[in-house]
Recover the amino acids of this structure.
């Protein structure tokens, strides 16, 4: 069984990000870039399935600028077999990424697409479902546990009220949630060693125009400063005074 | 311009009026349960026994959605699952977690763990949205203009084998008026349930947890509050043993009153809580329980 894992290059999720003075862009203060943490969970899951003999090939793919190579190299170091960068300088929204990926996935014809439930920069939570919709594949979002048997995939997924177990025929698309696994640590030598693995860059002749775009960014309003109280009695009184109890 | 709001069950009907009013009139598609007041011009009632997996009803819901320029649902995991699928089928623009409507095509939404608000423009219709009711007026909806039944078909392609719900009896986090949350200092699942759960049950409050608590197995995942978990907007939010990461604060900043209890007086949560007390949560919570009872 072959798996495709799309990954996104995002600014370090722990970096302080704020709007630029003119509100036209975001300033992350020179923070480094990472694989979107949910996509990293997807890479880890695919590699574990390969190690367990369930998957035979794990292909990672990214859509964007040349710098995405850095994240693809890391995915190769985790254990993916090969990487493809669908290269473009154009801005992309989730529908455009899903469209570009759908053509790639259709050509690769894998059994499974595994990807993060959302990216930590735009927090959209859209691309996976849109990709499944375009391919007309079954989907299981928010996966907490997977079992890729020969005839079907069984996915335990997080829901608003607990969890549920779904069975999906192949080919299918699964998006990953936090509890699925803890990605392994990759030291620098591992990343350098992965240099011998194939990474192919394919320039995209054109990409679909975005269906939405950001007009401006503003900082989220800060809450007015609060106060520390000295005793529980004072705290209880202050809560009652605010009329919320 | 025409708006359809998709409600998964009748509990969501009361949350659509404030958002819907930004567009004038709107219709509702109710997937399960019986029609109630939603202030809709028309409410389509699908009367499904339970909400099937998104894949199985995606096309059927998308065909109803195709009659509207705008389609929305209250933000939740099930809404993100289904609405993005519908957007993919109908080749729609999609705006997640709308908190403000500027016009028919421009909306405000949080990004980067809520540290940034983006003004987003949809370049084409149809537009699919999820929205957070806390950002809108809590209008009590009036009666609906008309009620019609509608058929939503289930392809049965994906099979739901089982479901398991959280421990019963406690209010739903995203709609609760009072939330008590705990972090990693709660040690283990039994302590968390006894200390945080016990306090919550005294006041009929909902229970929440940090990502760190969930990751370390102290609390179940569906209690996670924050950027990648649930967004809450209660009247009172008590954070016990929570340091106040950006990720967690993104999920609670719409709360009316945030109270922080932490041993570490320098914890970042004290900068953003309305009221804070430096102390051991194992001592403070029981005392507070007595003082508030």
């Amino acid at each position: 069984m072959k798996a495709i894992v799309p990954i996104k290059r995002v600014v370090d999720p722990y970096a302080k990000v704020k709007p630029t003075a003119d509100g036209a862009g975001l300033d992350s203060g020179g923070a480094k870039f990472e694989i979107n943490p949910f996509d990293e969970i997807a890479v880890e899951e695919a590699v574990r399935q390969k190690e367990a003999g369930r998957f035979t090939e794990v292909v990672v793919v990214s859509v964007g600028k040349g710098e995405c190579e850095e994240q693809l190299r890391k995915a190769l170091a985790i254990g993916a077999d090969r990487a493809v960068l669908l290269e473009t300088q154009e801005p992309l929204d989730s529908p455009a990424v899903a469209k570009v990926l759908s053509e790639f996935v259709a050509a690769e014809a894998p059994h499974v697409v595994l990807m993060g439930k959302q990216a930590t920069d735009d927090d959209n939570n859209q691309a996976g479902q849109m990709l499944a919709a375009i391919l007309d594949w079954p989907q299981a979002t928010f996966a907490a546990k997977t079992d890729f048997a020969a005839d079907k995939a069984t996915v335990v997924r997080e829901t608003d009220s607990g969890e549920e177990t779904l069975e999906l025929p192949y080919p299918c698309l699964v998006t990953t949630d936090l509890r699925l696994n803890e990605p392994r640590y990759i030291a620098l030598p591992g990343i350098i060693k992965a240099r011998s693995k194939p990474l192919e860059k394919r320039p995209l002749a054109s990409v679909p125009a975005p269906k939405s775009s950001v007009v401006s960014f503003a900082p989220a309003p800060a809450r007015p400063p609060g106060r520390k109280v000295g005793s529980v009695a004072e705290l209880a009184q202050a809560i009652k005074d605010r009329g919320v109890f | 311009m025409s708006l359809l709001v998709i409600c998964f069950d009748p509990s969501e009907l009361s949350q659509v009026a404030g958002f819907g009013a930004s567009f004038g009139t709107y219709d509702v598609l109710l997937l399960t349960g019986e029609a109630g007041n939603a202030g809709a011009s028309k409410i389509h009632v699908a009367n499904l026994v339970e909400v099937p997996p998104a894949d199985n009803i995606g096309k059927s819901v998308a065909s109803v959605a195709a009659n509207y320029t705008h389609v929305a649902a209250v933000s939740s995991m099930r809404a993100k699952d289904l609405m993005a699928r519908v957007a993919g089928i109908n080749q729609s623009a999609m705006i997640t977690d709308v908190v403000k409507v500027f016009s028919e095509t421009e909306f405000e939404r949080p990004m980067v763990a809520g540290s940034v608000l983006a003004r987003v423009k949809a370049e084409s219709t149809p537009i699919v949205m999820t929205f957070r009711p806390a950002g809108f007026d809590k209008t009590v909806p009036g009666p609906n203009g008309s009620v019609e039944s509608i058929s939503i078909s289930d392809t049965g392609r994906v099979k739901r084998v089982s479901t398991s719900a959280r421990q019963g009896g406690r209010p739903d986090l995203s709609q609760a008026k009072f939330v008590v949350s705990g972090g990693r200092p709660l040690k283990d699942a039994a302590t968390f349930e006894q200390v945080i759960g016990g306090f919550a049950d005294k006041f009929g409050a909902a229970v929440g947890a940090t990502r760190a608590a969930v990751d370390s197995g102290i609390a179940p995942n569906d209690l996670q509050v924050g950027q990648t978990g649930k967004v809450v907007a209660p009247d009172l939010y008590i954070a016990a043993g929570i340091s106040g990461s950006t990720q967690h604060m993104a999920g609670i900043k719409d709360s009316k009153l945030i109270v922080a209890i932490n041993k570490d007086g320098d914890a970042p949560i004290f900068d953003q809580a309305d009221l804070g007390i430096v102390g051991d949560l194992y001592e403070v919570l029981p005392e507070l329980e007595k003082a508030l009872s």
